[in-house]
Amino acid sequence: MATELAYAMITPYSLHKSRTGGIIGRLVSLSQLDLVGIHMYAPSDAWVDAYLDILRRSDLENPVREAFIDYVDENLRRDNPLGLSNRCMVLLFEGENAFQHLMDDVVGHASPRVTGHTVRGTYGDFQRMPDGTIRYFEPAVICGPDPATREEELAFFAATAATDGGVICDAIDFMPGSETFETQLVILKPENFERRSRRPGYIIDVFSRTGLYIVGAKLLSMSAAQGEAFYGPLVDVFRDRLQFLIENTMRERLEEAFDFPLPDEFFQTSREMLADLNARTEFAKIVQYMTGVDPRTVAGKAERDQPGPVRCLALLYRGPDAVAKIRQMQGATNPQKADPGTVRSDFGRDLMRNAAHASDSPENAERERRIIGMWQTEKEPEFTKVIEEFLAKGA
């Protein structure tokens, strides 16, 4: 069976109601597909008109087809009946029979019958009046409606990813006040994607308690060069703060190696001599973990700039005091010392595999966003490249 690329768009209402984590958890864990791309959109009216034109040429039977058309026309516009931000999050999935599998087994068909085993069954609503007219419709997720127009839809998303999506900080209208509005970077670490599970969704759900808005999303495969630039400041931190570990290890290993006690001066001198080597080794370990590439073995710029084999999910959260709120919900670096209910307490394993990274200051958020290409919308987003490469295979 041929490999297909399918999409699932999380609706503005679902994003606003912080259902994002639950929906992503189901999409990722219940499907047999590979998550290959994520992108945020804040559509213009022209975008909505063009998307509607595609939907109107789909062949789904009424009333579902008309319900989706009406929903998109009303709710994806910047001026909508609920007065919400029209942010959408589009996820790309690749695999065999991707479209039908995603629709039948995970997302579910729009239906007035109450169920709970699919995304729409749990997070969507479809209410009909006795005469058959639709009283209320919230699909939670929008998928490609028709195999005949699927490639056209994908090409449309690719062509508009940079103009109507990406880093969409301006998609939120905040009430003026004394708060400091910030955009915080969060990265869900590689251990969350070692296998298909609900972990990424659960973590997003915890961060949703901050009340902040997601304004950027990117499936990230860091290169060795990006990893080194991103974690570069840790070399000095490791050099200064990890010397005690060097001393503890030496005392433990050398305690019975000699028939005489080693003087404290020996350990003091040794820890200072080994501090830089130890710091750079620990630095290489974290870069390797986050990229899948040992930077000590990579030579040449081309190889250093090549995306690594492991995946992370980068998210941007915006709102009042976003940095502090995310850091509080993230928890302490050591999962064993993190407060109960925080991300690292619930999902962290150790000091390195502690579920998520969050910038520790607005300045570092800017620095780190620039490194991974999320400071502003890229001219050629990775999301676009994923679609174009897939479509090129079938050309």
Structure explained in plain terms:
This protein is an alpha+beta fold. Among the domains are: 3-166 and 377-393, 2-Layer Sandwich (Alpha-Beta Plaits); 226-304, no CATH class. Helix content is 44%, strand content 16%. The protein contains 17 helices and 10 strands. It has helices at 12-16, 20-30, 45-56, 64-75, 98-107, 119-123, 147-160, 199-207, 224-231, 234-241, 243-254, 264-291, 301-304, 322-330, 343-347, 362-372, 382-393; strands spanning 3-10, 34-41, 88-96, 125-128, 134-138, 141-143, 181-188, 213-220, 312-320, 356-358. A 4-stranded antiparallel beta sheet has the order 2-3-1-6, with helices on both faces. The longest helix has 28 residues, at 264-291. The protein is elongated. The model has no long low-confidence stretch (mean pLDDT 93).
Radius of gyration: 24 Å
Strand content: 15-25%
CATH-defined topology of the domain at 3-166 and 377-393 = Alpha-Beta Plaits
Number of helices: 17
| Unreliable stretches | none
Q: What share of residues is helical?
A: 40-55%
What value does the average pLDDT take? 93
Distance between the termini: 18 Å
At the fourth level of CATH, the homologous superfamily of the domain at 3-166 and 377-393 is Nucleoside diphosphate kinase-like domain
Major sheet details: 4 strands, antiparallel
**Count of DSSP E strands?**
10
Order of SSEs, N→C? EHHEHHEHHEEEHEHEHHHHHEHHEHH
The secondary-structure class comes to alpha+beta
Principal-axes geometry comes out as elongated
**CATH architecture descriptor of the domain at 3-166 and 377-393:** 2-Layer Sandwich
Strand order of the largest sheet: 2-3-1-6
CATH class category label of the domain at 3-166 and 377-393: Alpha Beta
